[in-house]
């Protein structure tokens, strides 16, 4: 695996683990941006935090890293309605309207980032370098 992709994988893993921890440290922040049509807000905040944390760790385990990257990809899609809801209700998180707008395409960048780690780095197809 090349150094750039390895560094990227560690950075994504750190981001996911830290984001997951924040769901438990400050669940009220995440509950504020939950669309009202979803039930069990606190439980969903904890569940998404657990999966962010677990998938971030699994990304670093070679045997599971591609599966974890797919899980991160799916999780990012699953939480996207909260980002849309926040954009529609900007008073929930006081910031410039441009900041709220930029959060939406930023999600696409994270999707591409996770997707990159679903692809094998070498011809071996496992995401790890093949033995000679």
Head-to-tail CA distance between termini: 14 Å
Averaging pLDDT over every residue, what do you get? 90
What's the count of strands?
A: 0
Range of helix content: 55-70%
Q: What is the succession of H and E elements? A: HHHHH
Beta strand %: under 5%
Assembly type of the shown chains?
Answer: single chain
**Mind describing the biggest β-sheet?**
none
Number of domains: 1
List unreliable stretches of 5+ residues. 123-132
Q: Number of helical runs?
A: 5
**Over all CA atoms, what is the radius of gyration?**
16 Å
Estimated structural class: mainly alpha
Shape: globular
What brief labels describe this structure?
5 helices; globular; mainly alpha; 132 residues; single chain
